[in-house]
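Notes on consecutive records. When two proteins share a document, each keeps its own sequence and its own token line. Never mix them. Below: protein one.
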Amino acid sequence: MTKALFTRILVGAALASIVSVPLVAAPRLTPGQQLDKALAGRVAGKPVSCINPQLNSSTQVIDKTAIIYGSGRTIYLQQPTNPEALDDDDILVTELRGTNQLCSIDIVRLHDRSGGWYRGFVGLNKFVPYTKVG
């Protein structure tokens, strides 16, 4: 057996052993745990009626709980009037009403990600800013 053939066999055996190792999926966090994780190390500020709509580009939906707008030092927690309609796999379509900001009077339509069909809506409340400590 040549050295090259032996090396190929050895590499193949090593790869086969890696592939055969069962992968264990990390347990999925509950919505409450997801919210706690997103707000960890942050302090709540005074609720505001409107936020910059550019924060829509960084949006996290927490299933049947809340929407988090923004990233970085300050994020905004939105707990809508009917959070049970939220699905963390939805596409959010926001309708701005009369201003160039996302406000508590606006509506967010929910669309299914796989088919794109309309699933419902959530009404917005005031946005609570959470800022990193330090």
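Protein two starts on the next line and is unrelated to protein one.
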Amino acid sequence: MLQKLKAMLEASHSSARLSELKPEPSVAVCAVLLEVASADNDFAVEERHAIAELIGAHFDLNSDEAEALMDQAQKERTVSPDLWPFTHTISQHFLPEEKAQVMEMVWRVVFADGRLDAHEEMLVRKLQSMLGVNHSLVMDAKQRAREFAATIDLS
């Protein structure tokens, strides 16, 4: 009985720490991009490079800083039970046009490996809803990302 009570208290304390996860906006964006890259269970090297370039450009980071941000975002992803802390942070800190930019980054990661997987597309729809981004803006972002991907040689 005492062991059960102790386990319940530890579980309660652990979930309290999870609910307190409040990532920085840059970490939140990076975590979302890492989640998208992992959605098809094949985190391709092209996707990793795309994420590093996208977050580097968006947050004005050099390559070492981008790698450090990716490491931090990965750590925070491992302690979060879902995407809510990350999408909530983005929703709270970003204007609608900035959220549309995040969705374009998401699509660029999706297309980075030259494939569109059903799991990736389903996650993009979920993110659209969680971030409250207008469907037409997401489709515009998808088209721009697809056009960008067509200019990249994956061979």
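For the record: The CA atoms of residues 128 and 135 lie 7 Å apart.
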